[in-house]
C-alpha cells in the first residue's frame, strides 16, 4: 500500500527499514501534476528495483520566473490517487520549509551546460535542480534514480552532479511519452487550451522534419532552416531555441559522421507557456 510521507526524517526511516530487509530502492523525482510520462518512470523503477519512491515537490529554487512557479499546476490529491494505483511504495511530499529548512548557502555551477539551451535561457535553473536532486539522493540513498529524456539537459546536469561528487547511484534515462498528436506529455500542457494544444503538436513535427532531413543526408544547417521555416509560418509559437547537438555532450558538432548520436532540442512559448521537446537520432 502507498505510504504518504511529508517529513525528511520519516522518509529516511521508511527507506532505512526497507534497506534493512535487503531491498533495493528506485527513486523518481517529480514536481507532481502527474501524467503518463511520470507513471512510465514509476513502472520502469518497479521493473528494476524492489521499492519505488516518488517525490513530489515543486522546487522553488529551480524557477527563474515567479509567474511560472505560481502558475505551475498542483494536484496533490489526484497525484496520490494516481500513484496508489501504481507500483509506487512511498511518496514523499515535503513542504518548501521542510525541504529547505534554511536558505542554502551552496551554489552549483555546471560549467558549459549553464551556457547552452536551458542553462542559457533559464539562469539559475540548474543550480536549483542540482540542489533538490542532491538533497533527494542524500535523503533516500537510492540504488537507482529515474529521469526523462524529455529533460535531457537536466539528465546531463544530474550525471555531472553524481559523477563529480561520487554519489553512488545508477541513473536511468526514460523515453519520452507523447500524446497521440505527438505532443510530449508535460504538466505544463494542463495550462494549454485545445487550440494551443493542437498548435503545440507542431513542435514535435518540426523536430521530425529536421530529423528526417538529417538522416537522409542533408546538412544540419538545412535541417535547422526547414524546421525554423515550418514553425515560422505558424501563428502563436514563439521559438526560443532549436539546436542540433551531440547526444552525450549536448555541444555543437562541427560535422556529421556515421554512427554519431545527435539530439535535436527545442524550447518554445505558446500562449505564455514554455514547452520543451527533443528527438534523438543515430546516423
Ligand atoms: P517534472 O515533474 O516535469 O519535473 O518531471 C519529473 C520527471 O519526469 C523528469 O525526470 C522528467 O524528465 C520526466 N518526464 C516529464 N515528462 C515526461 C514525458 N513526457 N515522458 C517521460 N518522462 C517525462
What is the compact description of this entry?
Helix content is 40%, strand content 20%. The chain is of the alpha/beta class.
Protein traits:
single chain, 283 residues, alpha/beta, Rossmann fold, Pantoate--beta-alanine Ligase, Chain: A,domain 2, 2 domains, six-stranded parallel β-sheet, three-stranded antiparallel β-sheet, 9 strands, 40% helix, globular, binds adenosine monophosphate
Q: Care to describe what's here?
A:
A hairpin with a 2-residue loop joins β8 and β9. α7 packs across α8 and α9 runs antiparallel to α10. The strands form 2 sheets. A 6-stranded parallel beta sheet has the order 1-4-3-2-5-6, sandwiched between helices. The radius of gyration is 19 Å and the shape is globular. The protein has 283 residues and is α/β, with parallel strands linked by helices. It folds into 2 domains: 172 residues, HUPs (Rossmann fold, 3-Layer(aba) Sandwich), CATH 3.40.50; 92 residues, Pantoate--beta-alanine Ligase, Chain: A,domain 2. The structure holds adenosine monophosphate. Adenosine monophosphate (AMP) binds next to α2 and β5. Adenosine monophosphate binds next to α2 and β5.
Tell me the radius of gyration: 19 Å
Helix content: 40-55%
**Overall tally of domains:** 2
Q: Can you tell me the CATH class of the largest domain?
A: Alpha Beta
**Order of SSEs, N→C?**
EHEHEHHEHHHEHEHHEEE
Amino acid at each position: 500500500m502507498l505510504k504518504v510521507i511529508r517529513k525528511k526524517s520519516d522518509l529516511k526511516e521508511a527507506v532505512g527499514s526497507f534497506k534493512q530487509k535487503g531491498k533495493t530502492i528506485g527513486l523518481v523525482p517529480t514536481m507532481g501534476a502527474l501524467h503518463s510520462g511520470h507513471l512510465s518512470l514509476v513502472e520502469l523503477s518497479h521493473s528494476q528495483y524492489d521499492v519505488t519512491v516518488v517525490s513530489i515537490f515543486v522546487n522553488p529554487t529551480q524557477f527563474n520566473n515567479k509567474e511560472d512557479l505560481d502558475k505551475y499546476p498542483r494536484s496533490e490529491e489526484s497525484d496520490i490517487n494516481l500513484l496508489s494505483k501504481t507500483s509506487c511504495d512511498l511518496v514523499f511530499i515535503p513542504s518548501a520549509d521542510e525541504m529547505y529548512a534554511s536558505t542554502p548557502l551552496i551554489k552549483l555551477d555546471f560549467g558549459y551546460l549553464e551556457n547552452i539551451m536551458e542553462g542559457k535561457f533559464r539562469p539559475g535553473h540548474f543550480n536549483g535542480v542540482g540542489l533538490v536532486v542532491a538533497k533527494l539522493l542524500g535523503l533516500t540513498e537510492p540504488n537507482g534514480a529515474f529521469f526523462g529524456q524529455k529533460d535531457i539537459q537536466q539528465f546531463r546536469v544530474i550525471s555531472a552532479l553524481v559523477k563529480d561528487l561520487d554519489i553512488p547511484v545508477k541513473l536511468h534515462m526514460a523515453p519520452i511519452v507523447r500524446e497521440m498528436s505527438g505532443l510530449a506529455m508535460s504538466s505544463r500542457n494542463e495550462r494549454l487550451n485545445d487550440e494551443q494544444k493542437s498548435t503545440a503538436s507542431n513542435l514535435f513535427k518540426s523536430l521530425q522534419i529536421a530529423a528526417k532531413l538529417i538522416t537522409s543526408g542533408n546538412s544540419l544547417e538545412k535541417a535547422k532552416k526547414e524546421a525554423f521555416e515550418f514553425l515560422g509560418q505558424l501563428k502563436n509559437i514563439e521559438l526560443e531555441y532549436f539546436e542540433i547537438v551531440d547526444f552525450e555532450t549536448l555541444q555543437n558538432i562541427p560535422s556529421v559522421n556515421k554512427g554519431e548520436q545527435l539530439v535535436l532540442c527545442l524550447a518554445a512559448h505558446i500562449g505564455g507557456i514554455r514547452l520543451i521537446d527533443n528527438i534523438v537520432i543515430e546516423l
